[in-house]
Design brief:
The chain has about 130 residues and is α+β, with helices and mostly antiparallel strands. The protein has two domains: about 30 residues; about 90 residues, Sandwich (Immunoglobulin-like). It has one helix and seven strands; from the N terminus they run H-E-E-E-E-E-E-E. The strands form two sheets. Strands 4-3-6-7 form a four-stranded antiparallel sheet, with no helix packed on it. A three-stranded antiparallel sheet has the order 1-2-5, with no helix packed on it. The protein is elongated and about 75 Å long. The protein starts with 5 loop residues before the first helix and ends with a strand.
Length: about 130
Amino acid sequence: MIFIPRALLKRNMKLFLISMIVLLGFNFSARAQCNNGISLIRVETTSSDLNEGSIEVNINSKGDYVAELFSVTGAGKISIQKKTGKGDQNMIFKELPANDTYQVLVIFNDEEQKFCKKRQISEISTLKK
């Protein structure tokens, strides 16, 4: 058994706790400063035979951005559609195969915060019901 003096243990524990509080505070403050966002509005079937669908997302931004839709398969991601925009708007991706899983990735060109530069929504399913 290793003997560690109590004074040393208490000092190291206090230092550890203070470090964790500072790191957590930094992490939360960095996330709170994002001035952009993306949210899923709707996923729906757009054809009578249920073979096509659409995905609508809302993008909040004051600057320019690029939104890209990927089809996600076991082999990886395949880019399906790419659109550019500026400011707040709803964006619709149409004519999508109804049995796929998708990911929407938005890159905000004017964003300076590293954690806010890219936003995504994953595992959007257009499976027939």
